[in-house]
Design goal:
This protein is mainly beta and about 230 residues long. It has one domain: Immunoglobulin-like. The chain contains four helices and eleven strands; from the N terminus they run αββββααββββββαβ. Strands 1, 2, 3, 4, 5, 6, 7, 8, 9, 10 and 11 form an eleven-stranded antiparallel beta sheet that branches. β7 and β8 form a beta hairpin. α2 runs antiparallel to α3. The longest helix has 9 residues. The chain is globular and about 50 Å long. The N terminus is likely disordered.
Length: about 230
């Protein structure tokens, strides 16, 4: 079940292929103040990441809030891996969001992808999100971590459940190469709020031994680049 989009400034969310960076200052930020190199490594055994969407933003911006409903845009990313609706919403949030960047293709277990993203003056935070497949509506995310003033910093990224779709683990309701299903369970709702993902339980078509995980699902290294 989709939820009405949250107010952008208060609570909206937010493949090893070439990266597409997007500039959407729209006159609010005078120029980019810094450039960062971001490396994401998939540390799961059996989950892949769909294209990764990243944003630099002000302190007040939130991708999501635990215990609160996911936005429609986040639900679409978490259920089907489609980053475009969320990207559009971020582009429109130019008073809070400075820059976005995205990858293309799947990031499989053990693989890494690196991309660059810029940040405007006074922008000190980074958020990323991507769907885990095969899952119903689970996504990997960093939400509002600090950008390093110099050097680099490495974070562990957790997996979250959007709460917008039941975790039935039925392949007909899960997209991607493993299942090839649809990106939504039509007419059914999930828990109704974003929460820490409970992983794969092996209740239907997905074997727990192949696709479950524990603790963090990715490492993210952010390095300031001087050009």
């Amino acid at each position: 079940m989709k939820r009405t989009i949250l107010a952008v400034a208060a609570g909206m969310l937010l493949g090893s292929q070439p990266v597409l960076a997007e500039d959407h200052f729209k006159g609010y930020y005078p120029q980019a103040a810094a450039t960062y190199e971001v490396t994401v490594t998939n540390i799961t055994r059996g989950q892949s990441f769909t294209p990764i969407l990243a944003a630099t933003h002000r302190n007040s911006f939130r991708l999501f809030q635990l215990g609160q409903p996911a936005s429609d845009e986040l639900s679409q990313l978490a259920e089907g891996g489609d980053i475009n609706p969320l990207k559009t919403a971020l582009d429109d949030a130019y008073r809070s969001v400075s820059k976005t960047a995205s990858t293309a293709g799947l990031l499989n277990p053990g693989q890494s992808t690196t991309f660059e993203i810029q940040a405007g003056h006074g922008v000190k935070r980074l958020s990323i999100a991507a769907m885990l497949i095969p899952t119903n509506d689970t996504f990997v995310s960093l939400s509002g971590v600090k950008l390093p003033k110099y050097g680099s910093k490495t974070y562990r990224a957790s997996a979250y459940d959007a709460g917008s779709e039941p975790n039935d683990e039925i392949c007909a309701n899960i997209p991607g190469p493993v299942c090839g299903g649809a990106g939504v369970s039509a007419g059914e709702s999930g828990e109704g709020f974003v929460h820490i993902s409970a992983g794969i339980h092996g209740e239907a078509d997905l074997a727990r031994s192949a696709y479950d995980w524990r603790e963090s699902v990715a490492t993210v290294t952010v390095r300031r680049v001087y050009k």
